[in-house]
Amino acid sequence: MNRHFRLAALSLALLSALPCALPAAHAQSGDDIVVEARDALRKRDRMKLAAARSLVNAEQHPLASWVEYWELGNRLAQATTDEVEAFYTRWSGTYVEDRLRNDWLLELGRRRDWSAFSRDYPRFRMNDDREVSCYALLSDHLAGKDVREAAREAWFAQRDLDDGCHLLASTLVRAGVFSTDEIWQKVRLAAEGNRPKAAMAAAALLNVPGLTASVSDAFSQPPRYLARKASAGDRTGAELTALALARAAASDPESAATLAQDWQNRLPPQLAGWVWGQVGLQGALKLLPQASEWYLRAGALAVAPGPKVAWSEDMLAWQARAALRGSPQRWALVRDAVDAMPGARQREPVWVYWKSRAVLAEAVRGADGDPVRQQAQQALAGIATGVGYYGKLAAEELGRKPALPPTPQPLSKAEREAANANPGLSRALQLIDIGLRNEGVREWNFTLRGMDDRALLAAAQRACEREVWDRCINTSEKTRDEIDMNQRFPMPHRQAVLREARAIGLDPAYVYGLIRQESRFITDARSHVGASGLMQVMPATARWTAKKLGIPYSGDLITDRDTNLKIGTGYLKLVLDSFEGHQALAAAAYNAGPGRPRRWSEGGTLEAAVWAESIPFNETRDYVQKVLSNAVDYAALIAGQPMSLKSRLGATIGPGTRAPDAELP
Question: Which of 235, 137, 287, 199 is nearest to 611 (CA)?
């Protein structure tokens, strides 16, 4: 009996035993079985998963490990340790082995099986799940280890309420490891992030009758709470009042500033300083000119005697951004904010750049200022690689001419063969080929762990040659010393992109920089909000642009490459023209809609880099910076003539940098 006959017989037997388990027409197609197994997982269909597992194992399909993972994962709450260990052994060293271990450790934590958890946890290679980390710290605490600092960091970093980190915190509170001050700090962090459930869960650890209800009131109706219930007679009352003031600031910083002034002398000075910091934070996010003044009040109170009330990293970051937009003590506020950040945050290129600018601006003229100037220039030189947005800005600040990194030596035959033979990369590409992109990306990224630059370049090249452009780019970006700009900045669809850009007078490098950020050149990419295609055009925008430009269009054409390019470039040109050719404003409008950058450029005129730095949306700020940095690199590759990043940013941005009668959706 040959292999195909055995497979068909097994398929028919399974399908007879399990009605409607899998469509008979798909019984012979291994890839179809894998896809249907993934669909069965979404539906929690145990019968289909069991049938699919048998079929792919009988066929020895390369993706059988994934089907087995889905089947076991779907019933993990009822699984035994022996079943899980058998899976580990069968798929040792693969992504799904470690992925199941992640899931199993969470299950063991929920079961409170610390003995089994402690045995399995050291084998967890990814170790990138915060809840698992909290369970691990709790397990160590129960074993008598000192976990205070690591546990405090993990709990404070927890954004959403989960069992592991909350159980860790509640256990350490009962053990006297976490103090009342730390519980209130967690409540304040949750208030700043507008996470009422996390705030109430933390407050409950204080065992104060009615406290969680009061926290809920302070969150949901801060003005009403302040008018009817607020007090500062004891620690609890003062903290609740501060929470209500912080939540009021999120809605209306200017009104909250009036309330903060009323309460300032009644609250403990450090807590009043935190309130003013929250008003400053919310004012900075709304780009209010008073934000720096509010931060100055906060800083004056923060150094008052008494228990210190910590500021979050976001509060400090927005102190710096508010100061950059204008303040009598502009550079001092920037420097102070960066100096107050944790060491790892201070070393990020963004804050190295802006602190160095602050130090240079404040340095006294002449020889007396030379030591601090040299120190700032050395800091800039440390990030001035020419790669990335702040690297380019730092290089230009030092007067260096833009230049591409040297091209690495060509890959050897052995390096290429090793990448082509890598089973994890092969599984990832097959998953992507059959439409399971999320699974393929996870398998691919896991497989890259531990690779050196040459292996990463070879893996990236394999993806480039398969035209899996997101893996090509993202993998190449992981190299440290050997930088292949043609991998990092590929130019798929070159003729079509150049044709559409040049036909309407757009800079092709700018178009490529935007597409790279929007879709990574995936023609059928679709975002969670419905943007589609290479240029991630929203359906309503596509219809409006097509009508405006007289382009024949129907909804099913949105992912057609040429149609998507024509509409996307057409809309980008309209946006760019409406903002008087300012690429930073146009990129922000393309990402966040044209109305927002219009509002963000109201008020005084700003240095363009400051304007980009103070974009209130993290996603849009990152997007604008990367699109412009990408465009600089693409210009060098297309024309061989690198252009400075500052020339693309423009010198200044203000009310006059947009057409007053711009008509855009």
Answer: 287
- pTM comes to 0.93
Cα separation, 78 vs 73, whole angstroms: 10
Q: Residue written as tokens 């800083």?
A: 299
- 68-72 long-range CB contacts below 8 Å, 24 or more apart? 68/96, 69/96, 69/99, 69/100, 70/37, 70/38, 70/40, 70/41, 71/37, 71/46, 72/100
Tell me the per-residue pLDDT of 511-530, one tens digit each, with 9 for 90 and over: 999 999 999 999 999 888 89
Mean pLDDT of 458-467: 98
Whether 277 and 315 have beta carbons less than 8 Å apart is answered as yes
Flag the least confident range among 109-118, 313-322, 605-614, 651-660.
651-660
CB 163 within 8 A of CB 202: no
DSSP 122: G
The span from the CA of 497 to the CA of 494, in Å, is: 5
Q: Is 227 exposed, middle or buried (0-12, 13-18, 19+ CB in 10 A)?
A: exposed
Q: 607 forms bridges with which residues in the sheet?
A: 652
Residues with catalytic roles:
518
| Whole-number Å distance between alpha carbons of 190 and 111 | 27
Residue 289 has pLDDT above 60, yes or no: yes
Name the 3-class secondary structure at 132. helix
How far apart (Å, rounded) are the C-alpha atoms in residues 559 and 523? 6
Supply angle C-alpha 556, 557, 563, rounded to 5: 170
Helices (H), 77-129: 81-90, 95-111, 114-120
Whether 436 contacts 475, CB under 8 Å: no
CB 485 within 8 A of CB 407: yes
Cα separation values, 25 from 49, 66, 89, 336, 515, Å: 17, 22, 33, 68, 39
Contact 432, 389 (CB under 8 A): no
**Mean predicted lDDT score pLDDT of the chain:** 93
Report the distance separating Cα 379 and Cα 374, nearest Å. 9
Rounded distance, CA 264 to CA 277, Å? 12
Q: Which of 237, 315, 304, 311 is nearest to 270 (CA)?
A: 304
Of 266, 257, 268, 262, the C-alpha closest to 293 is: 257
The one-letter amino acid at 630? N
User: Token match 């006294």: residue?
Assistant: 364
In sequence order, the 6+-apart residues with CB closer than 8 A to the CB of 86 are none
Q: What distance in Å separates the CA atoms of residue 425 and residue 443, rounded to the nearest whole number?
A: 7
658 neighbors 506 (Cβ within 8 angstroms): no
Q: What is the pLDDT of residue 512?
A: 98
Handedness of CA 159, 161, 167, 172 (dihedral sign): positive
Residue 153 tokens read as: 């960091």
C-alpha to C-alpha distance for 618 and 592, rounded to whole angstroms: 11
